[in-house]
Amino acid sequence: MDIVVPFFKSLALVPLTLLPIINPLSAAPVFIQTAGADPVVVRQMARQIAINSWFILVVSMLVGIYVLDIFGISLPIVRVGGGLLVAASGWRMLSSTGGNDVHKVVADQAAVPSSTEIVLRSFFPITFPLTTGPGSIAAAIALGVNLPRTFERYLMGAAIAVLGVAITVLAVYFCYRYASRLLAMLGVIGTMVIMRMLAFILLCIGIEIMWTGWTTLQKLTP
User: Fold this and answer.
1) Which pLDDT score is estimated for 112?
2) How deeply is 134 buried, as exposed, middle or buried, from its count of CB atoms within 10 A (0-12, 13-18, 19+)?
3) pTM recorded for the entire structure
4) Distance CA 54, CA 42 (A)
5) Cα 11 from Cα 55, distance rounded (Å)
6) 20-33 pLDDT tens trace
7) Contact by Cβ (8 Å): 15, 168
8) How confident is the model at residue 99 (pLDDT cuts 50, 70, 90)?
9) How many whole angstroms separate alpha carbon 73 and alpha carbon 141?
């Protein structure tokens, strides 16, 4: 019991941290435009996006901090930079009237894609930067910083990371898989309202990430 409760608390922390930043509902309209109406293509692309996102987030959690050390980049700097990009994305979504440039490019390429095109489009722009952008990567790295350094505890932390990210991308998969039904239930006005609300939340999340990094830098400054 002494191990089980902390295990599930740490496991729940991963999706609870990542899902609000990933916010798959905000990218659902772009996904629908990319995948089209073919249910087979929708299922394949949603699965590929989930797989891509899983690899990006797991790698970020397990080895991201070591990669930053190689390049001499501190985590607070990543938080400031990622927060700025996330806040900028939220502001563009909040202030746009007809969708941003990524939405327009994807809409122009909305023909039925081949298997190769599914793989390519599933990564850019859906997986990155719309699903796993700088904010979610920075958050994944921040979660990875807390992994224990002893071998046995690190294995448990790695298992938590793998399972937690799997739960996260499973939620992303179902959101994209049934995005058309969800948006149809909301309607045009409901979708617009939800999109504006999510854009504002994304803006606030970006500012929060940036502020956390900035305050950490201030504490480290002599």
Assistant:
1) 59
2) buried
3) 0.72
4) 18
5) 17
6) 888 887 778 778 87
7) yes
8) very low
9) 12
